[in-house]
Amino acid sequence: MLGCWGGTHCIVATDYLEVNREELRRWVRGDPGTFDWSPFIQHVCKIEGRGEPWQDKQLRLRSRLRRILPIDVHRPEPLGAPLQPQADALLSAFCLEAVSPDGAAFTRALSNVSSLLRPGGHAVLLGALGESFYLAGSVRLPVLPLDEADVRRALHGAGFELRRLRCYVMPPELRTGVDDVQGVFFVHARKPGGE
Ligand SMILES: C[S@@+](CC[C@H](N)C(=O)[O-])C[C@H]1O[C@@H](n2cnc3c(N)ncnc32)[C@H](O)[C@@H]1O
């Protein structure tokens, strides 16, 4: 999934699968039975330390998540048309390595999604290191196993300016058996240009 923050502080969320987009729409509407994000929102309020009630943040998030669009990161135009205005920031979590068959496709996907960002815009990327599969129910889905050097090379190849890269080894207590992930990377990168 990808999220983009536009100049009007609106959030654009995207996913390849209609079922995932529908789940997001149901959460925005507040339908019963959707995934409960409140523990995560409460945690964010706690670490931000501004005393903001989590219910206010949840309401604001729902009201700003205005567009939920289909995406294919393998297309040069991932949304099928340019995003207007281009986003100030883009967040992608555990997506590109899960949908790319090899390093070249991963780099191209990064370059494709950078077209959604304005020059000078920020990309925050989270992903798996050393993962070759994950289980979705009983289905085993392949993942491109990356190491830190692969991530650096791909960012450079896609034209991003790397600001910060942190890699963590997955502690044994978080190895739950649903995948063979070895670690996690966190990236802050910038699209060149702009102010
Ligand atoms: C491993 S899941 C990660 C989901 C979520 N971001 C998370 O952190 O749990 C990979 C996601 O990539 C999406 N996806 C699959 N093919 C894609 C494509 N070609 N372009 C963009 N997203 C794709 C899937 O629908 C799924 O939501």
Walkthrough of the structure:
The chain is of the alpha+beta class and 195 residues long. The protein folds into two domains: 1-13 and 87-195, 3-Layer(aba) Sandwich (Rossmann fold); 17-70, no CATH class. Helix content is 31%, strand content 31%. The protein has six helices and nine strands; from the N terminus they run E-E-H-H-H-E-E-H-H-E-E-E-H-E-E. The chain has helices at 18-29, 38-48, 54-64, 96-99, 103-114, 148-157, and strands at residues 2-5, 11-15, 65-70, 87-93, 117-129, 133-136, 139-142, 161-169, 183-190. The strands form two sheets. It has a seven-stranded mixed β-sheet, with helices on both faces. Helix 2 crosses helix 3 (54-64) and helix 5 packs across helix 6. The longest helix is centred in the first third of the chain and has 12 residues, at 18-29. The protein is globular and about 40 Å long. The two termini are 27 Å apart. Bound molecules: S-adenosylmethionine. Residues 1, 15-17, 20, 71-74, 93-95, 98-99 line the site of S-adenosylmethionine. S-adenosylmethionine binds at residues 1, 15-17, 20, 71-74, 93-95, 98-99.
